């Protein structure tokens, strides 16, 4: 995946599921193409195949189970996600946490299946712990700022610097409360390779305007 990047998680917001998810995905593809920047999206399992067939930007699943084919009722495997067109998988999100042993198994299975792995952590310290699983990227998101009005870039720039210095440049994206170009500029200036966000775009009155602002900041950096 091209870095730096903007990754937008559609979560289970009404504006980011079902028919609205497809429209939202097409908007993200349009802005990525028009502005020549790297934008990826993270979508609900039920929307993934239709979206992945329709857009060319990377489409991530919102999680998976640490299993292969077999007697696993209700489970989602990495192979299935890959077959359905997923580019990658977002793991251990604060809203879908995994025990470490499960997380390690998921990263390994996802990698074997050909998926790009982004593992979420709540701090640089937790990043140190999950680093041993060798995910492609670590997304550091202080849980208290998720979905709020204050971004991680405004509230805790020192944490971004620390994460980059401890986990390595090129390995870290940051998220929580990100909603404008200034947040993107600050995050990149502190060494992050991108941002992960959700409500700032998906719940915005004008998602296109916000996306353009974020993309402009990424492009100019
Ligand atoms: O997955 C991204 C997310 O947890 C951050 O959410 O709404 O603060 O951008 P939000």
Verbal overview:
By secondary structure, the protein is α/β, with parallel strands linked by helices. It has 10 helices and 8 strands. It has one domain: Alpha-Beta Barrel (TIM Barrel), CATH 3.20.20.70. Helix content is 44%, strand content 16%. The protein has an 8-stranded parallel barrel, surrounded by 7 helices. The longest helix has 18 residues, at 18-35. The model has no long low-confidence stretch (mean pLDDT 97). The structure holds SN-glycerol-3-phosphate. SN-glycerol-3-phosphate (G3P) is lined by residues 9, 93, 141, 146-147, 175-178, 196-200.
Which keywords apply here?
globular; 10 helices; 221 residues; eight-stranded parallel beta barrel; binds SN-glycerol-3-phosphate; alpha/beta; TIM Barrel
Q: Major sheet: order of its strands?
A: 1-2-3-4-5-6-7-8
End-to-end gap: 18 Å
Proportion of beta-strand residues = 15-25%
Total number of beta strands: 8
Radius of gyration: 16 Å
Enumerate how many helices there are, as a single number.
10
Highest CATH level, the class: Alpha Beta
What do we call the CATH topology?
A: TIM Barrel
CATH superfamily: Aldolase class I
Tell me which ligands are bound: SN-glycerol-3-phosphate
Shape: globular
Biggest sheet, open or closed, and with what strands and sense?
Answer: 8 strands, parallel, barrel
Order of helices and strands: EHEHEHEHEHEHHEHEHH
Task: Write down the domain tally.
Answer: 1
Return the CATH architecture: Alpha-Beta Barrel
Structural class by secondary-structure content: alpha/beta
Helical percent range?
A: 40-55%
Q: Overall pLDDT, averaged?
A: 97
Query: Stretches where pLDDT falls below 50 for ≥5 residues?
Result: none
């Amino acid at each position: 995946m091209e870095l730096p990047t903007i990754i937008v998680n559609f979560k289970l917001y009404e504006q980011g599921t079902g028919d609205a998810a497809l429209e939202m995905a097409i908007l993200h593809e349009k802005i990525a193409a028009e502005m020549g920047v790297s934008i990826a999206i993270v979508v609900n399992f039920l929307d993934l195949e239709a979206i992945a067939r329709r857009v060319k930007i990377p489409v991530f699943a919102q999680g998976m189970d640490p299993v292969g084919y077999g007697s696993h009722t209700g489970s989602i495997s990495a192979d299935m996600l890959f077959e359905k067109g997923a580019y990658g998988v977002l793991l251990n999100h604060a809203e879908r946490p995994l025990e470490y042993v499960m997380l390690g198994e998921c990263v390994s299975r996802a990698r074997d299946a050909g998926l790009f792995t982004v593992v979420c952590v709540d701090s640089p310290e937790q990043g140190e712990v999950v680093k041993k699983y060798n995910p492609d990227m670590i997304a550091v998101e202080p849980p208290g700022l998720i979905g709020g009005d204050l971004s991680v870039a405004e509230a805790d720039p020192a944490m971004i610097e620390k994460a980059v210095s401890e986990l390595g440049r090129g390995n870290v994206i940051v998220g929580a409360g990100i909603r404008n170009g200034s947040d993107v500029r600050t995050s990149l200036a502190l060494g992050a390779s991108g941002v992960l966000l959700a409500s700032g775009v998906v719940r915005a009155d004008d998602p296109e305007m916000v996306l353009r602002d974020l993309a402009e900041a990424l492009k100019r950096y």
